[in-house]
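Human:
Class, as today's exercise, you are to examine the entry below, and be ready to discuss the fold:
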Amino acid sequence: MHVERIDRSIGELIDQISSAEIMLPEIQREYVWKPTQVAKLMDSIYRGYPFGSLLFWQTDEVPETRDMSVGGPEVKPLRPPLFLLDGQQRLTSLHRVFKNHPDAQVVFHVENQRFQNQSAATQRDPKWIKVADVLDPKASMIRLTKQLLEAGSTLEEYEIEERLSQIKRLRDRRFIMEVLKGFPYDEVAEIFVRVNSGGRRLGTLDLAMATLSTRWTGVLAKLQQEADHWVQRGYGAIDVNFLSRALAGVVLGRGLSVWSPSRLKQTKDTELERGWEVVKLGLRRLIPLLEANLKLTRSDPLPSMIVLIPLVVLLGEQGEEPIDKPTADGVVYWLLLATIQTRYSTSTDTKLSQDIRAARQPDPIRALLESLNIDNTRAEVTERALRGRTKESPYFFLSLLVALANGARDWWYRTDILPGHNEAQKLEYQHIHPPATLDDRFDKGTINDLANLVFASAKANKRINGKSPAEYFPTLDEQELKDHYVPLDEALRSPDGYLAFLAARRQLLVEAMNELLDRFRPAFLDKEPTGPADPNAGRSLDLALYGSRSDGGRMVFTAGGEGFSWVGSASIAELEAAVESARIAGIDSDVVIAGESVPVEMIEDSLNVPIGPFLVTGTPEEWRAVFDRERVSARPLSAAPSLNLTPWVGDRIKFPITSTD
């Protein structure tokens, strides 16, 4: 065994990818880079910045492989391939740019010497030129230079030619390569895990997947085949990652941890095969149950897919015996309550471990409800719990379920509110009182209140066209309004009656949600006292963005609940940088909130930030989605209120970022 160090040009490496002389072993994860990252890589290479080395494996044994996300016809290599262990994102991105891949349309502004992904604006401006057009071996520098001069470039002809030639010479920039020779597959997998753990953060799921690949040859193909089956059923979120986590959960009997790879390495083939059969059987019993009882024909409305894993364990290990009604009802009841409680918004794998153990108890439904602390409570949704909630809240999912149960259909067009199995179709919703009809008396949280949202298509929105309900409700049948739990009182159809409208519709939704819960509630809870389904009922955290990163923008937080209130703020640039550090590299950091430096920590898959009375939790992706939401309604920095900031003193309550307003 030895390591050979060589170098090779970008052009040579791209040609080797095209001829299948560079391939990916199945331990590799998927291609995940975004267009912005691709453009930044091109910029770094253009400017002569370092762009890293590559790690390959050369072997006589042919491992299972996965496709590189580069497109093009399948070819067989003319010589033994190299297997890429580190550098997949960079090499795939470069191949995409050089070969004009539709998802890597990087363009270059010859005057500003900037790279970015193609957009509607760059398409209209002829001074932006596609990088692939310059890199084309048949491209004429004279023709491209003339094209840019005719577009109005103020550069001298020789300057344009030099900058275009600099792009052309990108093919000649060289990567340093390390090639592992004579190493067995299991040792290569160990090297892969160590190398990638030291760079862009690999989560426990990535590490477990790499270990499974070495332990069970061809596992990726099995997972992908199963994922393809569920895509056809509308459950596209049952993907390779979900199936890997579910398989590890069944085999290990717990959620993932830093010890999972070593434990999976010791697992016998028979255990893996048995675990895989449990996962497949559990899904084939669970999904039809959800379709029949909740009319949930797609996976994308589910706020969390992890909530399915304990139920897959429960039903898969029961075998082929029919599911009795108490078990079926209990499964649905637990799923609804776990979703309301955002069960996996923090300490994901710790809670998943608890729930898998519960699913294997002699009375699994009771044990699962004990994990939610509602084994002696008839959980109910309250009006207070819905107050101030928006589409990020799990109650948005419940409002869809009650609308489906009530036979609601798209207004005017009578189409299904939950689209069919085509993954390109998305669940759509509209404002009943359009924002344009509501004046400055109402803030964004009140306008976007869950009670003001209805499941209707973009076509229906065009019929509404910014009109008040007083104008367009008369064109609808009363039953169409009732199906969506819309109150019929005409006094609630004008902006003056908007707050009363929210209260009235909220009450209708609460009653429907409780009816849904009661339909599936286990009999042993019938005699128990009622209690809130959501431990955060009555608590709120409102976010308001003033300004942007470039002008020192501030995020203002307003927290409230029974017996407390608090206001604070933080730099949006600091917050976003902390989230990105956690997401990309798993690096914990600090931000200053209300004058106090607080830790931003990744614990398992959740990012935790102390904000006033709350420990706000969620995945980095959920945090980014909330930041994007706030940008849409951002106000000028000059409009930011003057705050008397006081750091929070006292205990903190866990609060999901998805429940913020």
About this structure: The CA atoms of residues 118 and 124 lie 10 Å apart.
